[in-house]
Each structure stands twice: as structure tokens, then as C-alpha cells.
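FIELD: query
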Amino acid sequence: KRVRAAAIIEGVLPKRLGIRKFGQMNPSNAFLLANKANKLKWYVIFTKPREEKRACDNLRNQGFTVFCPMRICEKILHGKTEEQFLPLFPRYIFIQLEEGVSNWSKIRSTRGVFNLVTFGGIAARAPDFLILRLKEREQMREEAFTKGDHLRIVSGAFSGTEAIFERIFDE
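FIELD: result
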């Protein structure tokens, strides 16, 4: 029980744990099919500190498709609780490019971008299913669980266990 509660409370991706609201359907894989049809792949970019938004805006202005997954964090400022949107992966964003692109100078010279993430000189690709799951997670934020929602864990060690949602606790 403690592991399950910690996973929910710490804001771990509920779908990754196999937790869904009753009656919620799995999304279609149209996103994956569209990417395979047009040969676009997702790559990882390392940004300058706290400049994810600037990098995304400048890359979009150049015509690139970029994605920076965000999370909601509640902060107490001047005695008030405020929601802030912070990057899920600080200093990392994703860019969609044609497979086999070798001229990265335009991207590297963009304001806010530090460099591409590479392994042995080869640009790091992010799997399409990862981007799909991250986009689903952002949509879940709009359909977030509310206090008192009845949940059923559908996979993992606690499969079949029913729970009542209390809250998500963020650092």
C-alpha cells in the first residue's frame, strides 16, 4: 500500500503505473502512424539553464516542431499558493526532424540551445512512443484526478486494487 500511495502522491505518471479513471479509454496510436509515414524522428536538445521556453520559441520561429513537456508545481509565494508550469526535464527539449539530418549548425546556434544530446557523435533519438506518452500526460493534466475519484490499478504489483484519489504531492 505504501508503494502505491507514494507513486500517486509523488506525481509519478499515473498511466505509466497503469492507473486510469474508471471508463477511460486508451488513446489511438494515430500519432505513431503519422510519424512513420513521413519519416520524422524526435531528437533531444540540451538547453541553456532555464531557457527551455526561449529555445522552443526560437526553434518554432525557424519552422521546427519542438516539444517541451511541462509539469504543474505548487509554490508558496508571499503566503499564497500559486501554480507554476515547470519543465518536466529541466534543460531538455525534443525536436522533430527528418531522419539522417547531419547539419545541426542552425539548431546549435539558436538562442537558448546549448547543444544536441549525442552519444559517440550520433544524435540521441527519443522513441516516438515516449513523446506520445509525454503528450498524453500533458492532456491528463486537464483531465486530472480530483479528490474522491475511484481508481483501479490495472497493471503492476497492485493490479486489481481499488483506491480513492486523495492528492498529488509535488516537491
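FIELD: remark
The first helix runs from residue 2 to 9.
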